Amino acid sequence: NNKKMWIRQVLVPGYTDDEKDLIKLKEFLATLKTVEKVQILKYHSMGKYKWEKLGLEYPLEGVREANQEDVDIAKKILGI
Questions:
Q1: According to a count of CB atoms within 10 Å of the terminal CB, is the N or C end of the chain lower?
Q2: What is the pLDDT of residue 49?
Q3: Please, is 75 exposed, middle or buried when counting C-beta atoms within 10 Å of its C-beta (0-12, 13-18, 19+)?
Q4: Is 60 in contact with 11 (CB distance < 8 Å)?
């Protein structure tokens, strides 16, 4: 559609930080002609309380929060 876009990827340690997957993401993004910006967002557990209030099991229980080193590694792999 020739629309400008920003890509926002949430970095979840153990789920979305695998080097092979990030390389595939980089390859896919290279096929998109109108990407203006790519952002890596650090996973955090701030919304966990919402799951608990609803009486639901938090699906990412025990997953550590992403840190700046994780983001820097992902950015290096993605070339951003």
A1: N
A2: 93
A3: middle
A4: no
Q: How far apart are CA 43 and CA 30, in angstroms?
A: 24
Q: Is 41 left (phi over 0), alpha (psi -120 to 50) or beta?
A: beta
Q: What does the DSSP 8-state code read for residue 12?
A: -
Q: Determine the Cα–Cα distance for residues 43 and 64; give it in Å rounded to an integer.
A: 8
pTM of the predicted protein model: 0.84
Q: What CA–CA distances, in Å, run from 62 to 27, 44, 45, 57, 58?
A: 31, 11, 10, 12, 9
CA dihedral of residues 27, 32, 34, 40 (deg, nearest 10): -40
Element (H, E) at 48: helix 48-53
